[in-house]
Amino acid sequence: MKDLKPVEIVTELDKYIIGQKDAKKSVAIALRNRWRRRQLDKDLQEEIAPKNIILIGPTGVGKTEIARRLANLTDSPFYKVEASKFTEVGYVGRDVESMIRDIVELTVNRLKARQQDEVQEKAAKIAEERILDLLLPPQKSKEVKHDSENDQDTQTLEEAEPVPSTREKLRKMLNSGKLDLRQIDLEVADKSSPMVEIFSNTGIEEMGIDIKGMLGNMMPKNTKQRKVKVKEAIKLLTQEEASHLVDMEKVKSDAINMVEQSGIIFIDEIDKIAGKDSSHGPEVSKEGVQRDLLPIVEGSSVPTKYGIVKTDHILFIASGAFHVSKPSDLVPELQGRFPIREELHSLGAHEFTRILTEPKNALVLQYIALLRTDGVDIEFTDDAVEKIADIAVEVNSTTENIGARRLHTLMEKLLEEILFKAPDIEEKHIVIDAAFVEKQLMNIVKNEDLSRYIL
Ligand SMILES: Nc1ncnc2c1ncn2[C@@H]1O[C@H](COP(=O)(O)OP(=O)(O)OP(=O)(O)O)[C@@H](O)[C@H]1O
Ligand SMILES: [Mg+2]
Predict the structure, then answer these.
(1) Ligand nearest to the CA of 57
(2) Full residue range of the structural domain in which residue 141 is found
(3) Model confidence over 329-372: pLDDT tens digits?
(4) Do residues 271 and 82 lie in contact, with contact meaning Cβ atoms separated by under 8 Å?
(5) Which of 16, 210, 271, 418 is the most exposed place for a label (fewest CB within 10 A)?
C-alpha cells in the first residue's frame, strides 16, 4: 500500500472530485491514521480503532465518488453496500456479515488475477511446450493415442522423426503464427458441473465452509476432448497453466490480510436505517439492522470460506442524505463508532462548470473522445459549458435535485442528434456553443412536465 501524505491524498482526489474540501480532508486523515497505526508497536496497534466516517449530503454530490477514488488511490480493497438492502423482505439475521465475505471474495479474485498476470510469461512458455508435444509427441505411447484419433495433421507430423531440430522448426512456425489455424485435439476442463451450483446461495457459506470447492474437489475432474485451433489452444493452455502457477494459499492469506489491514467498506444510505421503524409492514426493523452492524463495525471475527476475517481495522465510511433522520437517530453505540461527520455541500453552477471540464474523466472530455472514434471532432465553447451548468441548476431546482448526475442526462440529450448521426455526418468539426445548447435544450427545460421525463 502506498503511504501518501494527507495533502497528497487530497491532491489526488482533486483530480476527480470538484470541491468538497472538508470531506476530502477527513478521509485523507482517516487513511493516514491507518498508516500511522501500522508504524506502532503491535500492542498499541491493537488498541487503536479506525475512526469511521459518516459523509452527509444530498444525492449526486460526490460521496460515493470520494470513497471509491480513495480506495483506488491506495489500492485498498473496496466494497460498497446499501444499508437499506438489509431491511428488505427476505433478510435473515446474519446477512449483514455478507459484506465481509463479499469484500474478501473480491480481493481474492483481484489478487488471483494479478498473480496470473505476473506468471503469464512463464505460463505461455509451458503452454508452448505442451502445444509442441501435441503437435509432435515425444514418446511412442502418445503416438498411439493420436493415431486412433484419425487426425490428418498430427499424423503427418508424427511421421517426421521427433528430433530436437524438428521441434525447433515447429516452434518457429508456431511463434510466427503459421500454425494458428491448424486443428489439434485438446483435453479441456469441462466447466459445467451443475450439481455443485445447486448448493450455492443457500446460506451454507455463512458457516465459512467452502462447499462448492469441497464438492468440486471430490467429484472427478471432468475433461473433454475438443478439437481446437492452435491459436485458441495457446490461449486455453496458457490460462490453465497460469492458474496452476498461482499459489492459491498465498492469495487467500494475502487477501485476508489486505482486507483486515486496509479494507474500506462503504455503507451507503445509512440514513435509511436510522430513526423510528414504521410499525407495520413486512420490513425488518431498522434498529435490528443497526444492532447487526454493530459487532462488525466494532470489530469481530467473521468466518468466510477463505478463513476468519477480523474486522477491527477495516475502515467504514457511511453515507446518507439524512433529510428525514439525523445521525443522532442511530443507536448510540453505532454513533460512537462513526465519530467523524462530514457534510458535503450541494453543487452550484460554478461547480458544475468545473465538473464538466476539469476532472480527468470529465464528461466533456468523454464525449469528445467517444465521437472522435467516428472521426468527428466536437468542441465546446466556454459559454456552452456555462450554459449547460446553468440549465443543470435550473432543472435541479424545478424538478428534483440529483446533483451532478443531472449533467449526465443533460449531455446525453444535448448530443443526441450528433451521437446518432456521427458515422455519416458531413461536417467533421462541430462547435458547440451557447446557442446550440439553447436550441437543443431550452424547449424541454421551459416545460417542467417535459423535463421531468426527459432530463
Ligand atoms: N464534486 C464532484 N466532482 C466531480 N464529479 C462529481 C462530484 N459530485 C458528483 N460527481 C459525479 O456525479 C456522479 C454521482 O456522484 P456520486 O455517486 O458520488 O453521488 P453520491 O453523493 O454518492 O450520491 P447518492 O447519495 O445518490 O449515492 C458521479 O458520476 C460523479 O462523477
Ligand atoms: Mg452514492
Answers:
(1) 1
(2) 120-245
(3) 898 888 988 999 999 999 999 999 999 999 999 999 999 999 99
(4) no
(5) 210
